[in-house]
Design goal:
The structure holds two protein chains of two kinds. By secondary structure, chain A is mostly beta strands. Chain A contains three helices and nine strands; from the N terminus they run H-H-E-H-E-E-E-E-E-E-E-E. In chain A, a hairpin with a 4-residue loop joins strand 4 and strand 5. In chain B, helix 2 packs parallel to helix 8. The chains are: A mainly beta, B alpha/beta.
């Protein structure tokens, strides 16, 4: 039995992670670890960077092809896709799917939360895009928190 | 109690409606059911138990149980959860067994409708069946108990899994709208006759090669009786929420997940302020998330099994909002004077027995049960099809072949009433039943090719680890069927 099957919380060991160079370019992190019959992320990628042989397979991101455009974030029915981009000065941009009210505005300060909903840091909103009824909110955070921040509280 | 703002659903301002409840003047909105209007006014006690006079609220919220029966304009036993709210109606609670109606029944002669295909239930399976059969050329009568078509789809605010063919990434509510539009188009072309607020009440003896049903259409709060004569029928009657045994399970505030979803996502009424969710299958996880979106707190999710049954991605969505999930935990009791005031949860050992001393008291005003569903199959059983108890299907189901035909000629089944599964597979089963039934009646617009395509889609959706349970259920059904024939 995997720990996340009991807790609903992934650890980084459950994920395939990109290297530093790929992170500097910006890449999609797909936190989809179970064989669910689902593939909209594959169709959504304009760069053919997400592949899947059978619909029940796990999506595999080609971190070299992926440019971190984030087209896949809002189509994922499981809201399981995040884009992480390392930028200068020890900072990172994290794009998160968001389906709650109120929706933050650019330059707002919001609380960044981890996979268990625990407070990590206060971060600044850099971008808010609405696609369908899912918002994609990009926040600026410390690079060491980039793989832990997975939600925001406005 | 009304939801003002919602991230996904646009609750439009609607016309106010005045009505009376036990002589009290109350207000609701156009589009409300009687139950949702009462709930929004703070009424939680709908009935009393026959033996102990315990107060009871509604439970299923979708017209399947008897917890919300009231007298409306003198007519007893109205299911207030699916009865539309109308101006100036008089709603009264019933004391024990209801008095015989003093209202005048419609003195009309029965009307007869003759069609190729009767479809019972306009949820995802029934809508798809009707659309496919009408496209094949069959004349279709689609009957549903609710005010509108859509079944449970109209409350699924989350995006569906699957591939393009199954409209993956689209929300259930949007799929419902698309199907509704298609049905409307086919109605205008006189290919589908739609009867809402109508119940198929029984199967009657008909002439050879025909099936005969009684249908009651509710007009106002009285009824018109129809006789329906059809050559084939698809039963897509859905399922009923399961109850769990614990002290206090009949207190108002203990609701099925479907009822909670209906109240908040269809009528825009909050079920409470703080919820204990029982069951971490997909339904429990999804409804918990939807409660958060509606601005309701979720204290925690308890799950008796040692692992989370639903998709990890749904669990992850909840966890990152700070909602804990307790596996190997169950609800021991629910307490409160007239309504739920709190609950006691307890840890279970590996044999699912409560461990003494691990009890924990929780403050909540709502306990939501998401502990599985049972297929609605009474009509099928009455029509004489062979039934078997299949645990993986959720209970008694009609034996059926892969074209969804039962052991009685031209009687088909689709969706949850053929075995509990997902809306995406229900839609494909509905398509298969609609095309197969039409083909057998002599309509053939590329029917064989369509059937092949739909059967392949269904196999693909069930081929993963999460398709194991329905796969086993369908295998068992096939084995029983082989034995019988």
């Amino acid at each position: 039995m995997k720990e996340y099957e009991k807790t609903g919380v992934l650890s980084l060991k459950d994920l395939r992670l990109p290297n530093e160079k790929q992170l500097e370019k910006g890449v999609a992190i797909i936190e989809c670890v179970q064989h669910i019959p689902c593939n909209p992320c594959v169709d959504a990628c304009p760069f053919d960077a997400i592949s899947m042989k059978d619909i029940n397979d796990l999506p595999v991101v080609d971190f070299d092809k992926c440019v971190g455009c984030g087209q896949c974030i809002s189509v994922c029915p499981g809201l399981a896709i995040f884009v992480v981009k390392h930028i200068m000065d020890g900072k990172a941009l994290i794009s998160i799917p968001y389906e709650f009210l109120p929706v933050p505005s650019v330059n707002d300060k919001v609380e960044a939360l981890d996979r268990e909903g625990r407070f990590v840091d206060t971060v600044v909103v850099k971008k808010v895009v609405k696609k369908g009824k899912t918002w994609v909110v990009t926040v600026l955070a410390n690079v060491e928190d980039a793989m832990n921040i997975r939600n925001i509280r406005v | 109690m009304r939801i003002q703002n919602h991230p996904i659903i646009d609750f439009k301002q609607k016309k106010k409606i005045t009505f009376y409840f036990n002589r009290r003047k109350l207000e609701g909105f156009e589009g409300d059911s009687i139950a949702s209007a009462l709930y929004a006014n703070g009424v939680k006690v709908f009935t009393k138990s026959l033996r102990y006079d315990n107060p009871r609220g509604f439970f299923c919220g979708i017209g399947k149980c008897a917890s919300c029966l009231m007298r409306v304009n003198g007519i007893p036993n109205v299911r207030t959860c699916i009865a539309p709210l109308k101006e100036n109606i008089k709603v009264e609670t019933q004391e024990k067994l209801p008095a015989l109606s003093s209202a005048e029944f419609n003195k009309q002669h029965k009307k007869t409708l003759t069609v190729d295909l009767l479809v019972v239930g306009a949820g995802p399976a029934g809508m798809c069946s009707s659309i496919e059969a009408a496209r094949q050329g069959a004349s279709v009568l689609l009957v549903d108990e609710n005010m509108d078509v859509g079944g449970q789809l109209i409350k699924q605010t989350h995006k569906f899994f699957g591939s393009k063919q199954e409209r993956a990434g689209t929300r259930g509510i949007e799929i419902a709208e698309e199907l509704k539009k298609e049905i409307k188009k086919l109605q205008e072309q006189k290919k589908i006759n739609l009867m809402v607020n109508s119940t198929v009440i029984g199967y009657y003896e008909g002439e050879k090669g025909k099936h005969r049903f009684g249908v009651v259409k509710r007009k106002g709060y009285s009824s018109i009786f129809y006789e329906v004569v059809c050559r084939a029928v698809v039963f897509s009657c859905g399922a009923m929420e399961n109850m769990l045994l614990f002290p206090g399970n009949d207190l108002p505030g203990v609701y099925g997940a479907g009822a909670v979803q209906t109240l908040m996502n269809v009528y825009g009424v909050k079920p409470g302020n703080r919820v204990l969710m029982v069951g971490a299958g997909n339904v429990g996880l999804i409804v918990s998330y939807q409660l958060l979106q509606a601005g309701v707190q979720v204290d925690r999710v308890v799950e008796a099994a040692p692992v989370i049954g639903g998709y990890h991605v749904h669990a992850a969505k909840l966890r990152r909002c700070g909602v804990p999930i307790y596996t190997s935990y169950s609800v021991k009791e629910v307490y409160g004077r007239n309504c739920v005031e709190g609950a006691v949860v307890v840890k279970l050992d590996e044999n699912w027995n409560p461990i003494e001393g691990t009890e924990e008291k929780i403050k909540c005003d709502t306990v939501c049960l998401a502990v599985g569903l049972t297929p609605s199959t009474r009509l099928l059983s009455q029509a004489g099809v062979e039934m078997e108890f299949i645990p993986e299907a959720g209970g008694y189901v009609a034996l059926h072949n892969r074209f969804m035909e039962t052991t009685v000629d031209n009687i088909y089944v689709a969706g949850d009433s053929s075995g509990i599964e997902e809306a995406s597979t229900a839609m494909i089963e509905g398509k298969i039943a609609g095309v197969a039934a039409s083909l057998k009646l002599g309509y053939n617009q590329n029917a064989k090719k369509l059937l092949k395509q739909y059967l392949e889609e269904l196999d693909r959706l069930r081929s993963g680890p999460f398709g194991e349970k329905p796969r086993i259920a369908k295998e068992k059904i096939t084995k029983f069927l082989e034995k019988k024939t």
